[in-house]
Amino acid sequence: MLRKSIAGLLFLSLITFGSIASAQDAPGPAGAGPAPMAPQFRGFVEASLGVNMCSGDTCDNDLGSLDPGLGINLAAFWLITPQIAAGVTFGYHMLTPNVDGLDDTSFGTTQFGLEGRFFLPTSPNIKVYGLLGLGMGTGEFDFNGYTLEEDLTYVRLGGGVDFMVGPNLAIGGMLYYQVNSWDSEDGEDDDFDFIYIGAKLSVYF
Questions:
Q1: Which of 16, 66, 78, 177 could bridge across to 95 with cysteines, CB 3.0–4.6 Å?
Q2: Which residues make Cβ contacts (< 8 Å) with residue 83, sequence separation at least 6?
């Protein structure tokens, strides 16, 4: 139920952003001249820094909790068309373990994946998009000098918005929900996903 609600909110947010941006790009009075043409780019690279949050039954139980931590994403995309981009992503995402009886603990995941983006038709200076990503990675839980590793595969769904602040430079934000499938060493069926919200910088080329 939580995953469906978050996906619905993301979809409504994208539609709202698209409507606002389209209204800003509406044609002016007669004689005002044609709207400026958007520059044609071949692709872009981006870096994102944000907050990673835990979602699921394992996030808060009798043993403790997994509190929010930092997340970093790096990506490179190729624009197949002005509205469709495909690329590769790399991320390092942390959560903050708060486990009863353990003082020196940490949890982080290294992730690699493929991602597609669909840009809504908006003004040349505003880029609103939805995203779908697939990937895999490794999670490490360190506690009292010991390390427990778990492999993961994921599907992420979300969106974002970019504001062009230069000829090829954009700033913006992104939000996505990541459904994780964990392969635990101890055979337990872990159940927790990620919610990521962050600010980003993009360079188009």
A1: 66
A2: 118, 119, 120, 121
